[in-house]
Amino acid sequence: MVLRRIGVVNTERRGKEIYYSLTHPNFARASELMRVVLMQRLGGQAAKAANQLTVVTDPVCGMRLTPARAAHSYRFHARQYYFCGTGCAKEFKKL
Questions:
Q1: pLDDT for 57-82, tens place per residue?
Q2: Which entry of 30, 56, 67, 94 is 20 to 30 Å from 83 by CA?
Q3: Among residues 48, 54, 86, which one has the least CA distance to residue 67?
Q4: Domain ranges in the chain?
């Protein structure tokens, strides 16, 4: 809610699903820079925290998220895919 209020994300409701998108591509770059700094500061704890700091991309909408924050995940052809929400997971399974 805070990110939407300050203009970082847009929301779009489609039925029961809510889709979020960044309002500017530089927000994704800033997030990646913060991730790099945190990984450097964690030093020896980096491996432990890697799952929380690893950034993946939802293959349907392109949203960047961490596996720990993904709403859904799906294993397909020996690869794990992560999704921001139910709508994207359902759309992926249709393909």
A1: 999 999 998 888 899 999 999 999 99
A2: 30
A3: 54
A4: 2-94
